[in-house]
């Protein structure tokens, strides 16, 4: 299938960069019993702020770092909740997950939270798009306290990535390689979006990129869905993928087969 891509302008990045850390996380929402954000059942914090602009974003309302709806919570407050669920989470092979938005934009808070969790032997999962702004001791400390990274690799082709995500994939690919250097247990997530990531070439590019990454224990294929489209309207934005529907099962199976040929375990 041939597709013509229109380049969207770079998103407005100002006011979304690094902020002074005051010991609190800016939280969009909390799910005390999430089933899709890592192994087992999980306590999930959705952090505010994201610098990507995925056309299919189902959490459009997490983009801005500061919004009236967000709440600021410190680690002690969050841990009080986590501790009430810990036996239950552990019994299911679960734990906690930091997601968003993009949790790396608040990496000091996530580092502090994960450190507290590991002190109680609670499994930690970082669900990230790989947009690390700083490679420093804080990032290493965070990753030292992270049991599993779930890394979104949205598209390896740089031009299609810019169209689909609004910004280049340079930072994400750098982070992916960094995880491999650290031998950090990582699960790659790949959203299959008709017209953008569902073609065989894109699947081969992904397979070639992760093929020799021994730290990537599996790839999770996520069929595109329209469930978050209404949030765009609530934020006053036009949802540009109107009319794009979830991919057929055969497409997912084809991508699965291609990625398996690069020696990876695929879940779907
Ligand atoms: S990285 Fe996630 S939160 Fe950010 S725009 Fe993309 S889908 Fe939305």
Automatic annotation (TrEMBL):
<keyword id="KW-0119">Carbohydrate metabolism</keyword>
<dbReference type="GO" id="GO:0051539">
    <property type="term" value="F:4 iron, 4 sulfur cluster binding"/>
</dbReference>
<dbReference type="Pfam" id="PF04055">
    <property type="entry name" value="Radical_SAM"/>
</dbReference>
<dbReference type="GO" id="GO:0043365">
    <property type="term" value="F:[formate-C-acetyltransferase]-activating enzyme activity"/>
</dbReference>
<dbReference type="InterPro" id="IPR007197">
    <property type="entry name" value="rSAM"/>
</dbReference>
<keyword id="KW-0560">Oxidoreductase</keyword>
<dbReference type="InterPro" id="IPR012838">
    <property type="entry name" value="PFL1_activating"/>
</dbReference>
<dbReference type="InterPro" id="IPR013785">
    <property type="entry name" value="Aldolase_TIM"/>
</dbReference>
<keyword id="KW-0963">Cytoplasm</keyword>
<feature type="domain" description="Radical SAM core">
    <location>
        <begin position="36"/>
        <end position="265"/>
    </location>
</feature>
<comment type="function">
    <text>Activation of pyruvate formate-lyase under anaerobic conditions by generation of an organic free radical, using S-adenosylmethionine and reduced flavodoxin as cosubstrates to produce 5'-deoxy-adenosine.</text>
</comment>
<dbReference type="InterPro" id="IPR058240">
    <property type="entry name" value="rSAM_sf"/>
</dbReference>
<keyword id="KW-0004">4Fe-4S</keyword>
<keyword id="KW-0313">Glucose metabolism</keyword>
<comment type="function">
    <text>Activation of pyruvate formate-lyase 1 under anaerobic conditions by generation of an organic free radical, using S-adenosylmethionine and reduced flavodoxin as cosubstrates to produce 5'-deoxy-adenosine.</text>
</comment>
<dbReference type="GO" id="GO:0046872">
    <property type="term" value="F:metal ion binding"/>
</dbReference>
<dbReference type="InterPro" id="IPR034457">
    <property type="entry name" value="Organic_radical-activating"/>
</dbReference>
<dbReference type="InterPro" id="IPR001989">
    <property type="entry name" value="Radical_activat_CS"/>
</dbReference>
<keyword id="KW-0479">Metal-binding</keyword>
<comment type="similarity">
    <text>Belongs to the organic radical-activating enzymes family.</text>
</comment>
<dbReference type="GO" id="GO:0006006">
    <property type="term" value="P:glucose metabolic process"/>
</dbReference>
<keyword id="KW-0949">S-adenosyl-L-methionine</keyword>
<protein>
    <recommendedName>
        <fullName>Pyruvate formate-lyase-activating enzyme</fullName>
        <ecNumber>1.97.1.4</ecNumber>
    </recommendedName>
</protein>
<keyword id="KW-0408">Iron</keyword>
<keyword id="KW-0670">Pyruvate</keyword>
<dbReference type="GO" id="GO:0005737">
    <property type="term" value="C:cytoplasm"/>
</dbReference>
<keyword id="KW-0411">Iron-sulfur</keyword>
């Amino acid at each position: 299938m041939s597709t013509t891509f229109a380049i969207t302008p770079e998103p407005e990045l100002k006011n979304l960069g690094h902020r002074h850390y005051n010991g609190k996380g800016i939280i969009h929402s909390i799910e005390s019993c999430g089933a899709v954000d890592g192994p087992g059942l999980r306590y999930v914090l959705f952090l505010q702020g994201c610098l990507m602009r995925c056309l299919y974003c189902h959490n459009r309302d997490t983009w801005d770092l500061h919004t009236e709806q967000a709440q600021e919570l410190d680690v002690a407050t969050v841990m009080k909740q986590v501790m009430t669920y810990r036996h239950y989470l552990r019994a299911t092979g679960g734990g906690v997950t930091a997601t968003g938005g993009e949790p790396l934009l608040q990496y000091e808070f996530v580092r502090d939270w994960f450190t507290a969790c590991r002190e109680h032997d609670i499994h930690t999962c970082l669900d990230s798009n790989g947009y690390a702004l700083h490679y420093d001791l804080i990032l290493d400390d965070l990753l030292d306290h992270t049991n599993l990274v779930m890394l979104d690799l949205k598209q390896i082709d740089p031009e299609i990535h810019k169209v689909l995500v609004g910004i280049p994939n340079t930072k994400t690919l750098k982070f992916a390689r960094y995880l491999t250097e650290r031998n950090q247990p990582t699960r790659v997530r790949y959203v299959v979006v008709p017209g953008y990531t569902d073609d065989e070439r894109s699947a081969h590019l992904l397979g070639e990129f992760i093929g020799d990454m021994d730290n990537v224990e599996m790839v999770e294929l996520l069929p595109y869905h329209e469930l978050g489209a209404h949030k765009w309207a609530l934020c006053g934005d036009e949802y540009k993928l109107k009319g794009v529907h979830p991919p057929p099962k055969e497409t997912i199976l084809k991508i699965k087969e291609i990625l398996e040929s690069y020696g990876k375990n695929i879940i779907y």
